[in-house]
Amino acid sequence: MFIINPTISLISVAVVILVYGILLQRKLVTPFEDVKAYVSATDKDQPNTVLIETNDENPMFFDVYRCDLETGELTMIADNPGTDENGDMVLGFMPDEDLNIRMYYAINSDTGYLTVYHRWDENSEWEELSSFSSNDEWGPRRFTNDGRGIYLVSNLESNLSAFYYMDLETREQTYITSDSLADVGGVGFDPHTGEPRSISFNYLRRRREILDESIVPDMDFLAEFHEGDFGTASRDNADSTWIVVYYTVDNPAVYFLYDRAEVTMLEMFTAIPALADYNLADVQPVEITSRDGFILPSYLTVPDAEFYGEGPYPTIMYVHGGPWARDYYGYEPFCQLFANRGFAVLQVNFRGSTGFGKEFLNAGNKEWGRNMQNDVSDGVSWAIENGIADPERVVILGGSYGGYATLAGAAFTPELYCAAVDFFGPSNLNSFMETVPPYWKPLKAMMDIRVGNPDDEADRAMLEEVSPLNFAENMTMPMFIVQGENDPRVVIEESDQMVAALRAIGTEVLYVVYGEEGHGFAHEENRLDFAGRVEEFLFLNVPGVECELFAPVEGATTRIE
């Protein structure tokens, strides 16, 4: 429940009450302009109350409010002071299971060290519970029902994170479990006792460890019932009916209603029903070894061999954003679109990706454009050496950090690529770091460690050396650059300056700005328009690929610059 870096961008929170799919009531409870707001905690024993966090008073910091769903009244229960008495920036709060604020996180803006504080109740003093580097993890997942202990995830004593129980009175930590390849993922708790029942780990595919023997029959049945990795999205208060979701290559989510007593499943809906009419491409989990020995968990999507032959194929290196995120096994719309058009698509979890241990994550520190980019290049080499990629027809494509990696690939290894598609990617790392949105400012010390500190002379020089903007003369392949007009994370100047530099040396650039968009696509019309323009761009610049003729999408806010 800690909210360190909120990713849900909402102008307001509308509380919706649903009964059997019928919309009964909608109340606007945060009528604020130009703020972020989100529901951060609920309690089944308090059905008319939720906790809401919003930065309406200061764009850098989030306060916590208790919201009465019947009246819409908001009562502040945690006022974020910005900095605590130690001078550290307060990042977020955590309630117990009764919705009382019991913990908060703070970060030292000079060292990047994080500290977790605990109190027993609102009349108690805050006490330090744990302190650790930004390169480590120590995070509570849930209070026990009696509030005397917490379940937490930590890698302070290991490379891969492990799951623990801590007694808050004695501070003693008890090890519960961990995995040999992946960090701790989701944890399922018993809705009545509050004790952990299952833990998932995701290396190339999801693995689940059962801690409560009473649910073994349920998990065995669900594992065999439908293809794909699955999880429990929700359950009733009696714990007799679950909503189970399967994540498959063929559909991003398929939902079932599971009756535990009758052991029956009722299909509710799929995320994209129209996909049932198509035969989608297989996704193969693969391991790639980097030039310096890291194992890179990756995913390969290949076109239909009966239609397109056995390869080598035109290939897209599709770089994920974050970069402190990862690619997963499952449905990915671009991968399926491109595979349908005859491309192989490779997704590499480069160093700096999350979920594979802190050594792998921290190996990406200050390696933008360097070893992180080498991992992407090594993925291309692997695909060529294994007869998958046609070396004359490799495209690099990505958004956000993936957009940066696209520009870096075009600038630093132009011999690998015949075309590049960057969306929402920064071109100059110094200007990018200097224009992050206000709600990222408390994490500046962490960003300085991960990316580089523009205020440090050596780091600033390093960031200049890995900024694609400074190497535009190398970027001679056709380029497609996309920008959200209102992007607060990667501001429009990042793309403007890159396009200007490329056009100054005569490089062919298609530059599209989408109005009313930020860092990503919020409007379906723009998402479809973008996909169609990418397809047309690849058809025009990659020999021998299929294309559906593109027509501008009605309602799209496209502006070709």
How would you characterize this protein structure?
With 561 residues, the protein is an alpha+beta fold. Among the domains are: 212-275; 279-560, 3-Layer(aba) Sandwich (Rossmann fold), CATH 3.40.50.1820. 19% of the residues lie in helices and 34% in strands. It has 11 helices and 30 strands. It has a 9-stranded mixed beta sheet, with helices on both faces. It has a 4-stranded antiparallel beta sheet with strand order 3-4-5-6, with no helix packed on it. It starts with 13 loop residues before the first strand and ends with a strand. Mean pLDDT is 93; it is low at 1-24.
What is this structure's SSE topology?
Layout lengths: L13 E6 L2 E7 L8 E6 L6 E10 L2 E8 L5 E5 L10 E7 L5 E7 L6 E5 L8 E6 L5 E6 L5 E6 L7 E6 L5 E6 L5 E6 L6 E7 L3 E5 L5 H10 L3 E7 L5 E7 L6 E6 L4 E7 L12 E7 L5 E7 L3 H4 L4 E7 L13 H8 L3 E5 L9 H5 L8 H15 L3 E11 L1 H12 L6 E5 L5 H6 L9 H7 L6 H9 L13 E6 L7 H13 L4 E6 L9 H18 L16 E3 L1
Parallel strand pairs: 24-25, 24-26, 26-27, 27-28, 28-29
Antiparallel strand pairs: 1-2, 3-4, 4-5, 5-6, 7-8, 8-9, 9-10, 11-12, 12-13, 13-14, 15-16, 16-17, 18-19, 19-20, 20-21, 22-23, 23-25, 29-30
